[in-house]
Amino acid sequence: MSQSIDIAVVGASGAVGGALVELLEERQFPVGKLHLLASEASAGQSVPFKGRNLRVGSIAGFDFAQVGLAFFAAGEAVTRQYASAAQAAGCSVIDLSGGLPLDQAPRVVAEVNPQVLKTMQPPYLFASPTSAATALAVVLAPLRPLLDWQRLSITACLPVSSQGREGVAELARQTAELLNARPLEPRFFDRQVAFNLLGLVGAVGTDGHAQVERRLIEDLRQVLDAPVLKVAATCVLVPVFFGDSLSVSVQAAKPIDLHAVQAALEGAASVEVLEKDEYPTVITDAIGQDLVFVGRARNGVDDPTELNLWIVSDNVRKGAAHNAVQLAELLIKHRP
Amino acid sequence: MSQSIDIAVVGASGAVGGALVELLEERQFPVGKLHLLASEASAGQSVPFKGRNLRVGSIAGFDFAQVGLAFFAAGEAVTRQYASAAQAAGCSVIDLSGGLPLDQAPRVVAEVNPQVLKTMQPPYLFASPTSAATALAVVLAPLRPLLDWQRLSITACLPVSSQGREGVAELARQTAELLNARPLEPRFFDRQVAFNLLGLVGAVGTDGHAQVERRLIEDLRQVLDAPVLKVAATCVLVPVFFGDSLSVSVQAAKPIDLHAVQAALEGAASVEVLEKDEYPTVITDAIGQDLVFVGRARNGVDDPTELNLWIVSDNVRKGAAHNAVQLAELLIKHRP
């Protein structure tokens, strides 16, 4: 075991923060002292780690010089407020909030573009992409040598947990109200999400694109090192608690050999590929797993240059926490 | 009121059959005698029509020479068994099951390609497309003059009612079991559909495409009179009871003028268009309506030749029954 490192987990009371702490223990990450932090409002809770319950403290006034590495898994605003100061204090930062621009915090997926880390100097500051971009990159990167892709068209069906624990509670509450035939008053979301699909997630720009869509596209382009790849993305909020479900259509310049695609996916790290007439689901496959599942790899109905895929992944675990911990493992491996 | 016509509704005990009967009354269709029919197993139920409860009889042995028009809204097998014989008996047939090939039963959407009817001779035999194709055609046809489309990429999120009343009952049952923390044994679907997305709907071909996907593409091409248009389609079963939700990306040869798109949709029949930062949902907009709702009309993030749309429509009412009754209205208008 390598020398241990003191760590801060910001947003430890959230779903992703909890999964981070779990994975640090599970993967026997060489954690020295573990500081669990959250905003003032969320501090005070307890999170289990190695048989003890650790109290979540307030980030306000925390001295990041005490730790060698900090995961930021709270909101974007928290990252924007504290991440640069943490780095300035000598602490490497892995952001999971998407709160920093790509040039300030490059997006890295452990299986796809770990070489980015070698171009940086400690203390590091970089980010794990949005969960859907991480899952997509894990599946698409191994296909890059096979297909001269020209355009991706993505419909990302995001679970309510993408909006935090309040999203999860609200879907449960709405569903129970409806099943008991009680009148429904949406609270956390602006309308009914139970037994319904919301075709717009979060804030929307003047060009009509949601911020999550723009991020998905930008993160994916950076991780795949494909800055001008055309990507159409629509993010939809679905009445699912956990797990991203992604419908992807790739358009290539040349016919795509499905056998080669299947073989490349079978050999890819962190990918579990099903046959073309099989499909994974978040409930039966992805939840709690550190793999991205892909099925239904098929050409277009009469277009061999088209490749369609159905991808599912645990948005909290694989799409966020697992990637971040893998990145941390890479960091300590390359420590001076 | 024009001269009345005797009518048979096959599949009258199903959701679409019920909606057909409702619309015939609501739109004051000149119905003479109304025969409600179903397979032996579903016969015997009652369906209300103009203040009376009509008994659903068995299709076996029914003499279609008694009626001038028959709607086939039962399964494909029923259509394949009886539709040709009905036509041979002098009865015009409007199929809603998709059970007949396109050359035998051309797909017609009232707002889009009604001219097809003029090329035919009575007794007619034609079909209303799959509900998603109907909704897509209603929205896309008015855009045809504006954009030189090259490719459509569609993710169609289909409700459990697309699989009939048993699909509706199964989602309700599964949801109640899960909310009550009882162990779930999927029955009607092969796995959990509550709080989950099934990335493959119904039967799948050796090429990996589901039959519903192939139909969606073929129906859409025929209705839009675009036989070689490239269409990528993925159909997903979602935990929603009623209403299709469609994520569409159009790729055109030239930049697409969003103002012209918005204006064309505002002037289109049976379309309700929202602003580009607004989105309709099946629950809040589409259910029970005879309109197709579209929102989020936006270009690509940095590609003016791309147009993205979010479309919702009542799969039972607008996508099936309403179109079929509109087609019937066209037929009697052109009666000799």
From TrEMBL, chains A, B:
Q: Which Gene3D superfamilies match?
A: Dihydrodipicolinate Reductase, domain 2, NAD(P)-binding Rossmann-like Domain
Q: Which InterPro entries match?
A: NAD(P)-bd_dom_sf, Semialdehyde_DH_NAD-bd, Semialdhyde_DH_dimer_dom
An MF annotation (GO) of this entry: aspartate-semialdehyde dehydrogenase activity
Descriptive protein name: Aspartate-semialdehyde dehydrogenase
List the EC numbers from the record: 1.2.1.11
Kindly give the SUPFAM superfamilies that the UniProt entry links to this protein.
Glyceraldehyde-3-phosphate dehydrogenase-like, C-terminal domain (SSF55347), NAD(P)-binding Rossmann-fold domains (SSF51735)
What sort of enzyme, by top EC class, is this?
oxidoreductase
Which residue ranges does the record assign to the Semialdehyde dehydrogenase NAD-binding domain? 6-120
PANTHER family, per the entry = ASPARTATE-SEMIALDEHYDE DEHYDROGENASE, DEHYDROGENASE, PUTATIVE-RELATED
What SMART domains does UniProt report for this protein, alphabetically?
Answer: Semialdhyde_dh (SM00859)
This protein's superkingdom? Answer: Bacteria
Q: Which family does it belong to?
A: Belongs to the aspartate-semialdehyde dehydrogenase family.
Write out the entry's keywords from A to Z: Oxidoreductase
